[in-house]
Design brief:
The structure is a single chain. The protein has 19 helices and 20 strands. The chain is an alpha/beta fold. The strands form 5 sheets. Strands 5-6-7-3-8-9 form a 6-stranded mixed sheet, with helices on both faces. It has a 6-stranded mixed sheet with strand order 14-17-18-12-19-20, with helices on both faces. A 3-stranded antiparallel sheet has the order 2-1-4, with helices on one face. The longest helix is centred in the last third of the chain and has 35 residues.
Length: 602
């Protein structure tokens, strides 16, 4: 299939530093690519070159005649437009469906009458998505499309992009989003691109193998240089004519080694921890909290024990941060009690980053403006070394926070939070703008953290990798605790996080059809299709879970299992807990549906 868009040998230099050095990109009809790489590696710049917005120093851009492209920037600009609808309609071509603009705005939770000057970051992102998707172009270039979106909208966007016939190039730090959508991976590393003809799910193993092979090649080159230098010092005289080529080869190898930057440095997360807390960290009993007539939390109970990793998920505006503040004691409940354990040292990483003074320097933000050393878990470290741990260049020490990128500000917040001794970590959207490598190392840090973690996140993959219990929004004021991560929650209740609005966001197959056929309410006296399906399938699921639990219990009853294989014992116990929670959820769901059926049938 002939490519729609081709970039060849793209080179671009910023401030004397080569950002792109021979980068290539080819996009064919219907292809779905993800573009991955470190923060600052040039992904957004390459996407802008693909969109025709930036001219490279060298290289070619070929676009098939008649092909339409739409580009979603990281920071959309709505200035000059009276309403969000006017902004979206301005992106339509002469033959595009004008209704689709209004339809997509409604799907994204906007009316079209909003004034751009009064929009939040999330609302700006949603309006920009509607403008980009409305024309249904041949090629979609999406730079961080999930930024500022909550889980219901992320899952709606996934479904919409899966249905789209447009070729897609995606930049995102959301690993689950990339895994679910991409079929090809382009890795931008040290200015050049590598192509993997598989989706993002295969990327991490492939990347690690490539880096391992590069490290082996560098090690071989270092050994060869050492051998040649030994020959120069102790071997046959280098002045003889027949040996001049060998000397020249040695100089070439040294130059190659100097120019080979190798893989970019790794984030080195410090060891985190403080004095051990009491076994009971938090106990909430029948807690309720309302603002006016709106219930945020109703009759919620939870025990948090030392070492627990608990996630909180829900749509924007559901009250995740309020629930977090109730649990950490910074907000008093209207009803019920919250008891804090003894000897708690809590460190909080908030999503707003308001605690960062934009006018202070990076060094002062880490040291508190006191000298050039930072206290990391009670030990003094030079600020430059600590900066390097989080991938900051020493030259950035005097750079103001205001000029840092979103990813750099995220790393700075992490560096400040993890320097403090703690036994409870409260993380509110910690993964925002973090690149994949930093996410992996944060994940490892949390895995090795000896204390307790309370985590709010929209990153499904990160939740699956870090938590053992999940508190999920289940309707106005209702929060339910599930064993396991986000995927385990879906397995237990059959769906992800629902939107807070009464009308559920659904993927759009045809805007006009959706507008002409409003959703019908279930008729009285008859179960909805969802309830009827649940009533039919749940008994079999309950039977399967009961059989699974019986097998797990039998395995745990093996007399020498713990002594022979402690890991297998722990894994079996964990699986038993998960299966037990799934069984309880299935039985509760069946009972609720059965009661509705009896009520309808009189």
């Amino acid at each position: 299939m002939a490519p729609l868009l081709i970039l060849r040998g793209i080179q671009l230099t910023f401030g004397g530093h080569p950002l792109l050095n021979g980068a290539d990109l080819s996009v064919s009809e219907g292809e779905r690519l993800c573009l991955v790489g470190r923060n600052g590696s040039g992904k957004s710049t390459l996407l802008k070159i693909a969109a025709g917005m930036v001219q490279p120093d060298k290289g070619d851009r070929d676009l098939k005649r008649g092909i339409s492209i739409r580009y979603l920037p990281q920071e959309p600009d709505l200035s000059g437009f009276a309403t969000t609808l006017a902004y979206v309609e301005a992106g339509l071509g002469p033959h595009d469906d004008a209704y689709r603009a209004r339809y997509l705005l409604e799907q994204l939770g906007l009316t079209g009458a909003e004034e751009p000057g009064h929009l939040s970051g999330g609302e700006i992102r949603r309006a920009a998505l509607a403008r980009t998707l409305a024309p249904q172009p041949d090629v979609l270039l999406l730079d961080e499309p999930t930024n500022h979106l909550d889980l219901p909208l992320i899952e709606w966007l996934e479904a919409t992009l899966k249905e789209s016939r447009s070729a897609q190039v995606l930049i995102s730090h959301d690993r689950r989003f990339l895994t679910n959508l991409s079929r090809t991976t382009i890795w931008l590393d040290r200015g050049a691109t590598r192509r993997l003809d598989q989706g993002f799910g295969a990327f991490e193993v492939w990347r690690d193998d490539v880096l391992e092979q590069e490290e082996l090649a560098r090690h071989k080159l270092d050994r060869k240089i050492a051998m040649e230098e030994d020959w120069v010092r102790y071997g046959v005289s280098g002045r003889r004519k027949r040996n001049q080529k060998r000397l020249a080869d040695l100089h070439t190898m040294k130059r190659t080694r100097r120019e080979d930057r190798g893989s970019l440095g790794d984030v080195a997360m410090p060891e985190v921890g403080g004095e051990m807390s009491a076994k009971l960290v938090v106990e909430a009993k029948a807690v309720s909290k309302s603002y006016g007539d709106r219930a945020i939390v109703k009759d919620f109970s939870l025990r948090v024990m030392r070492g627990d990793r608990i996630g909180i998920v829900g749509p924007n505006g559901a009250g995740k941060t309020t629930l977090l503040n109730l649990l950490n004691g910074s907000l008093a409940p209207d009803q019920g009690t919250v008891r804090q354990g003894a000897n708690l040292e809590t460190v909080t990483l908030d999503q707003s980053r308001d605690s960062l003074d934009p006018m202070t320097t990076l060094q002062d933000a880490l040291t508190g403006g006191h000298g050039d050393h930072v206290a990391v878990n009670g030990e003094s470290r030079h600020v430059i070394g600590y900066m390097r741990d989080f991938l900051f260049d020493p030259n950035q020490a005097r750079v103001r926070v205001s000029v840092l990128s979103g990813g750099e500000r995220g790393r700075l917040m992490l560096a400040r939070a993890l320097a403090k001794p703690s036994n409870v970590l409260i993380l509110d959207e910690p993964t925002n703008d973090l690149d994949l490598e930093t996410l992996e190392l944060l994940q490892e840090t949390l895995a090795n953290y000896p204390g307790t973690v309370l985590l709010v996140s929209h990153d499904r993959d990160f939740l699956d990798r870090t938590i053992d219990r999940l508190i999920a929004y289940d309707g106005p004021g209702k929060w339910t605790v599930y064993a396991g991560g986000y995927s385990d929650m879906i397995a237990q209740r059959g769906h992800g996080v629902e939107a807070r609005a009464t009308q559920k966001i659904a993927p759009a197959k045809e805007a006009k059809e959706a507008s002409r056929e409003p959703p019908r309410a279930p008729s009285k006296g008859k179960l909805s299709f969802k309830d009827a399906h649940a009533l039919k399938t749940l008994p079999e699921r309950i039977k399967t879970l009961e059989a699974e639990i019986a097998k797990l219990k039998a395995k745990l009853a093996t007399p020498d299992l713990f002594a022979r294989d402690p890991r297998a014992f722990a894994a079996t116990a964990s699986a038993l807990e998960t299966a037990g929670a799934a069984l309880a959820a299935a039985e509760d769901e069946w009972l609720a549906v059965e009661m509705r059926r009896e009520e309808l049938e009189g």
